[in-house]
Amino acid sequence: xPVLIVTGTGTEIGKTVTTAAxxxxxxxxxxxxxxxxxxxxxxxxxxxxDVAEVQRLAGPVTGLELARYPEPLAPATAARRAxxxxxxxxxxxxxxxxxxxxxxxxxxxxxGGLLVRFDDCGTTLADAARLLSAPVLVVAPAGLGTLNSAAxxxxxxxxxxxxxxxxxxxxxxxxxxLAERCNITDLPLVAEAPLLGAIPAGxxxxxxxxxxxxxxxxxxxxxxxxxxx
Length: 229
Prior knowledge:
The chain is α/β, with parallel strands linked by helices and 229 residues long. It contains eight helices and seven strands. It has helices at residues 15-28, 50-58, 75-82, 89-102, 125-132, 146-159, 178-191, 208-214, and strands at 3-8, 33-41, 62-69, 105-113, 136-140, 164-172, 195-200. It has a seven-stranded parallel sheet, sandwiched between helices.
């Protein structure tokens, strides 16, 4: 099944821009793309969410949200406080499977990290990935602290029998310091997965045409790009 789960080691680290880069590269190769956001939090009705941002940057992709909660909290907490039904892994898997019937690639973008809860029973994006038997791409920050969080995420994936496709740095400074430069070398070692890209800081502010032109240079060939190690 052509499904790729995009998660992160935390929040606000570049998952949506990374998802947009993946979509842009796939579209440029002539593939049809769908983006699924199981739970969009912190966005009011009528406001543009992460799916709309991917569409703006990448181009004509099919977008689907399963739930939208107004407060910027973990999905389980946001659903409970709003008095709304939570999303379940089975619903995520069913939606992704249906999208996969008509698309070459389905990108499922999680909220926060891998083990952020969907509901009060403790289900997570990892459970949806297991139901789909889908590989997981981990987006990580560039700076201090990223090695520990990347190692923990990789360990959680392996403990659940899930495949980690690789790691992408979600926002790489134009002038990286010592920590960022060393982390580029160390991330694949601690995550036990290949480094498959580095998205430059501020990429989401580029004009869509420039974003689409440059996206392939940020991603490794394994993800459809032409970035060299």
